Fold this sequence. Notes:
Elements: E1 4-5, E2 10-11, E3 13-21, H1 30-43, E4 50-56, E5 60-67, H2 73-91, H3 93-96, E6 105-113, H4 119-127
Antiparallel strand pairs: 1-2, 3-5, 3-6, 4-5
Helix pairs in contact: 1-2
GO biological process, one term: DNA transposition
Domain Transposase IS200-like: 10-129
InterPro entries: Transposase_17, Transposase_17_sf
Amino acid sequence: MKLESNHHSVFLMHYHLVLVVKYRRKVFDDEISARAREIFEYIAPKYGITVEEWNHDQDHVHILFRAQPKTELSKFINAYKSASSRLLKQEYPRIRQKPWKEYFWSRSFCLLTTRGAPIEVIRRYIESQGRK
């Protein structure tokens, strides 16, 4: 286990985030998921976040990421949801055909700390998402 550090602290903070599409609409495929990840990875460094693992099912995404102690997670999540909603609907018009007004993501989200669980266990769980 390799710890991270900054000028004032040493840390290792992993989180498991689950974001669900509004009304559980089935919109994710590999292409849309890959673009959603690109958007996440573009915004993440501004908040001190690094993606470790990403996977999707048809109506939600699972993200394993590292953060820093100063990271404001709720601000990051809201910024990501806002930007990705706008860009995904703009770049993939077929998404707009799903009747849920201007919303893409559900207002709620699930954010879990890894609580000392081996990261490889969580990584395997996320990798298995979307498989029957």
